[in-house]
Task: structure prediction
Amino acid sequence: QTAIDFGAEGIGLCRTEHMFFEADRILAVREMILAKDAEGRRSALAKILPMQRQDFVHLFKIMSGLPVTIRLLDPPLHEFLPKSDDELAQLSATTGTSLEELRHRANQLHEYNPMLGHRGCRLGISHPEIYEMQARAIFEAVVIVGAEQGKTVVPEVMIPLIAGKAEFTFLQTLIADIADEVVKERGVELEYLIGTMIELPRAALSAGEIAEEAQFFSFGTNDLTQTVYGISRDDSAGFLADYRAKGIIEADPFATLDRDGVGELVKLASQRGLATRPDLKLGICGEHGGDPASIAFCHSIGLNYVSCSPFR
Result:
């Protein structure tokens, strides 16, 4: 609602993981993570489905037909597990899982470099039931809001962190299959777009192939900058100030888009994507979406929109 009040013409990045942290569903999310098989995960996800569906109903109602791009679950699963001993003890008591088993599961999920680990589309491929639940929540919400408002809601479903076409195609098929199920169950037609984040150099270089299937690209310039530079955004403050002071860089590349490196990849990917699919929708999301110099560059290379961070 705040975005609309400030004149936004759509939502360029709806992060679904924030919904998973809500107090009324974090326990079910943790049950899903602790489940030993797909059946157990589906049982826990069934508890989350109505809540996630209601999130999207609320969002679609507020946006009233404006574009909404929904990113499927992106962060690694360990982020949803409790950190403190008190929280672990509470989860143990609630789920009947021993503290020893909880710690073992947390150790299993531990990653040395989670930013490049088991997250994004990799989660959807390893645990497709997670993305199935999210897709169903989206499409069922579309049906509900369409019936109530009498408007056609066209969600844009975004797959994060792909490196190439094969990952996208696998998950695109999964999402489309869920859409087909909802169409049969509800007796309505659905309109939707399936696209992807371009946030890895390989995805940018493979943009022509990816655009054979993807209907839109959103350049995730935070992670694209990290992976192009080989610099952790969270750790960069300790030395980038020295780089600027010594004239090695003119601006923080995480604040203003680096035109010669990251920007060149965005431009190349846009050109290759449009050569394959002339109606490909192109945008960026990330901190750069709120930076005037970065916005000017995106406009100059023909991107359709920028998605900036919420007002804060």
Notes: Residues 199-312 form one domain. The CA atoms of residues 169 and 213 lie 7 Å apart. The radius of gyration is 20 Å.
